[in-house]
Amino acid sequence: MTGKEPEDLLGASPSMFGIDESSLTSINNDKNLTELEKIGGVSGLAALLCSDLTKGLDPSASGEVSLESRKNAYGVNKIPETEPESFWMLMYENLQDPIIILLIAAAAVSTGLGAGIPEQRVKNEWIEGVAIWVAVLIVSSVGAANDYQKDQQFRKLNAVKDTISIKAIRSGELSMITNFDLVVGDVVILDQGDKIVADCIMFESHGLIIDEASLTGESDPIKKTLDQDPWIRSGTQVSEGSGKAIIVAVGLNSEWGKTMALMEDAGDEQTPLQDKLEVVAGMIGKIGFAVAIACFIALMIEWLVKNQGNYAANVNQNGPISFFLYAVTIIVVAVPEGLPLAVTISLAYSMKKMLLDQNFVRVLSACETMGGATAICSDKTGTLTENRMTVVEGWFACNKLDHAPAKSDISLDLVNELKMNIALNSKAFLTETSNGRVGFVGSSTECALLLLLRSWGINYKDVRTQHEADIVQLNGFNSARKMSSVVVNKAGKKLRLYNKGAAEWVIKRCTHLLNTAGGLDTMDNQSNEYLMSIVTDMAKRGLRCICLTYTDYELEDVIRPKDFFEDPDQTDQNLVLMAIVGIKDPVRTEVPGAVAMCKNAGITVRMVTGDNIHTAMHIARECGILTEDDHVALEGPVFRKMFEDRLTDLQLILPNLRVLARSSPEDKLTLVRLLKQAGDVVAVTGDGTNDAPALKESDVGLAMGIAGTEVAKEAADIIILDDNFTSIVKTVLWGRAVFNNIRKFLQFQLTVNCGALIISFIGAVAGGKEPLTVLQLLWVNLIMDTMGALALATEMPSMALLEQPPNGHAAKLVNNKMWIHITVQGIYQVVIMLLCLYVLPLTNSRYAITTSAEYYANDCLSNTPSHLGIPVGTGSYNNGTPDGTWYCEVMNNCGFPQNRIVANTVLCPLYVNGTAVPTSQVDAVCFNNSTNLGKGCTVNDNLNSAINYMSTQLTNQQNNDYIPALSVLFNVFIWCQIFNEICCRRINDEYDFFSGLEKSPIFLIVLVITIGLQVLIMQALGLFFTVQPQIWQEWLVCIAAGFGTCVVSWITRFVNRNTSFGEKAILTIRKPIMKSVSGRNLGGPNGSFRNSGSIKGGSVKGTALINGPSSFKATPRSSGAGGAASSHHELRQASLSNNKVVPF
């Protein structure tokens, strides 16, 4: 690739090429066959593009015909990505939240009043407003950084998602190259299931049919023809057949590129878990809103009472503006915007890690759904086995060999015929890997046969090159037919059809067999039974049995329809059996352990394969799938018959069905639907085009990355890159981890929410005091939302998750066990904070709160005279102009406002000649002016001014006195959250919530940052956060109180595990449909067996292989032993025609 953008490349002019971009684009856009013919058809176009239809492009070419020159001349095969949003734009979007805007507005008013009102400015009350601005910017920056990193991760994952390997011919060799490396002039090979990634023109077709629904909306696939419609558009898919084509338009010049250029970006995908969490967030937000309103009203009532007649001076600090900020901040804290963020972070992190585990997630919701899987329907080849197939024995023209045949073991004529069948009747090819091993591309079965040719010293590529022109029709393998065929022109004398496929299917179509002398023997019942016994014997030892056959047709036949060979069902008849090969594909060594883990996790693994039932059963036993006496294996035809005629019987044995052999894609689809109806969460693997419906129908579709077609990958939710069953188990592990991590975060956040809201409400309503300031609440919000989401949502999965039952569809986000922990921790934290708020000031002079009486007694003379502008004096009334001491004595001893109890004593200056002091302040103070009695006087006005001033100063003093205790409260609260975050790492009553901490680097980093910032706030940022530095004893007490959450958590876990208060499991495993069945006489004559057993709790005792038509009658009977009634059924065989039931 060059460093240029695609749009820059489009304008470049060609040099050596005989056709420019605009002319080529015009021919392609208009599908102009006339113009194409004028330049010599496809071969002429290839010459103009300096390409070769046989050898393709030369990647080593330099100069004006190099690959780079082609990109400059005709563009690159890539659609320009939309520019990612910048960090600043993401930050701006975070600031658009209505609550944040409200907070900013209130902070602006607070800052303006704090700086504008002289009294406020003197006390630096503008600081809180500025600090809130800074805090909002920090919170928004952290949120923007999270969003930016999430976007970058998803872009990287999408780049992987959009990368497709394409079969192309370069320098005469078949190569696998990525779609982004394709250029105009490349020759590509198209097979069933391939996705078309560039516009091209077909020049060779073997029944090529294209699905163009993605472009045209037409549901019917289009059959392509060389003479009328050779145009193949990007964005479409190959439904059937195969062919070759030359690329004529890439990137923005292609049909798909132009369509994508017109499309706007789709909105962010919401997963079911995100939807659930948004509902939870909404409910919590409403509760927080109610608490905020209650706090605001309570604080306002107290403020109005305290500041009668002096509202303007106290409107900002400890006034309505401050209360409004506090209420808005409570809402900010209460609204758990971290919940959806936690899901997004967890999913993005999990997707990245799953990619390392060979799982590429295409659909976000699949991560969480896979965690609840209760059934996995797995393919056999390459998933449970190594997909390294080798021919190990066989039957060759009546010669049975117990080893892979050497060339000398069979006749030369047979070698030549097998060579033609294996090389030409195949789309697979072998590659040489860097470590010297042979790589398989295409069907592993076909590759095993190609390896057999190689062992005979035959180069399959030479055979293909030599006879390429002789191929009349190629019909690839079809999962419904279980065979493939090719029609070859034999030197202009006759047409020979070579067929190969599943042994028991192909043998049915054979009428003759080759004998050792090279002659033909007629197939009779005896020979048929003998051959089937050979197939069964090999299948029982886990070998895949493939028949290779041929039949001849006349070169010309006037009564034969023109499209006769396009229908393989009518051509693949009257076959001559040449050989039966047994192909071994060993079980992956790690699969039995993985299957066992699935069983422990409450997941039923079923094998769904197209192989012979004996082969399937052998492999299933090796894998640990078919282990119990009550497990059942069915053949596809029997399964279909039971579904159509005896659905109830099929539902009865469904929980015990473990193997479905010789199945068709329709069988797989039916099985998925039945399992879903039974309440299972179903994951299905698939690799073929016909598997797409089942992949779509399942809860999670798993496509094979190596053997899977592009159609299957498009239909899947997750692509298993290494086709390995253990990778599927890892998807379950990660899926459970996502759900578990969200639960961890939810438990943590709800605990913080409860604690913060309750203490805020109690403080405001009971004492008129905000226990946590606005900035402190914003710091709590940062810990709780963003940092908590980062820490808990990125926890690595523990293998212990696979020892728990599946979550299932109906699993609650917050279960009873979690509610117990949230409640207990919330109570503990609230009690600790109430102790700090109300008890701590009574225990130590460092935290003591000045009372009203103490303040008036000790500080009146230092405040009142200066406020009124009078001398301190000695307490003289001075004929209506009292001094400061007189006013202080009145305020302290006359009940205005202190100590009414001593008003009628000599301590009160208003007590004269034994006359009781009036209870009305104005009457008592203005006693010497009878004409104005009760109407006020200057002395009373001064006294009111002094009282209001002293009240304000008292409030300020008490606020300062509260700082030491509230500092401890704040520090304790944060340490409680730090340790509670650690406790929340284990939410199923495990005692070891500290274990594995060293394996969670993000958690540790968040923990260190949180602790570091808390220390900085407490020791250096007290001016902004209204805290005082802690002494070492206070740090010890705060950390110890925080660690108390761990002690409380351990006690709660102990109680839960040893009483009925805690749940014993997250979710009870779904009970099977079938309750209890007893099976009697599951068979009869002709190879049947008798079994007496019962199905208890959904299991059929007496394992049965059913590979022939049979019907069962279910007869209910009752049992009332011990006063309990249970439902039993008898499985009685009603028809034994052609039935064969054998024990495992």
UniProtKB/TrEMBL annotation:
PROSITE patterns reported for this sequence: ATPASE_E1_E2 (PS00154)
Query: Which membrane topology term applies here?
Result: Multi-pass membrane protein
Q: Which domain of life is it from?
A: Eukaryota
Q: GO CC: one term?
A: endomembrane system
Question: What Pfam family does this protein match (any one)?
Answer: Cation_ATPase
Give TM segment ranges. Answer: 99-118, 130-148, 279-301, 321-349, 745-766, 818-840, 1001-1025, 1031-1051
EC numbers for this chain: 7.2.2.10
Q: Which residues form the Cation-transporting P-type ATPase N-terminal domain?
A: 38-115
State where it is primarily located. Answer: membrane
> What segments bear the compositional bias annotation Polar residues?
1134-1144
The UniProt catalytic activity note for this protein reads: Ca(2+)(in) + ATP + H2O = Ca(2+)(out) + ADP + phosphate + H(+)
UniProt-listed InterPro entries: ATPase_P-typ_cation-transptr_C, ATPase_P-typ_cation-transptr_N, ATPase_P-typ_cyto_dom_N, ATPase_P-typ_P_site, ATPase_P-typ_TM_dom_sf, ATPase_P-typ_transduc_dom_A_sf, ATPase_P-type_domA, HAD-like_sf
Q: Which GO terms describe its molecular function?
A: ATP binding; ATP hydrolysis activity; metal ion binding; P-type calcium transporter activity
Which purpose does this protein serve, as stated in its record? Catalyzes the hydrolysis of ATP coupled with the transport of calcium.
Family to which this protein belongs: Belongs to the cation transport ATPase (P-type) (TC 3.A.3) family. Type IIB subfamily.
Matches recorded under NCBIfam families? ATPase-IIB_Ca, ATPase_P-type
The name on file for this protein is Calcium-transporting ATPase
What is the source species?
A: Chlamydomonas eustigma
The organism's taxonomy opens as: Eukaryota, Viridiplantae, Chlorophyta, core chlorophytes, Chlorophyceae
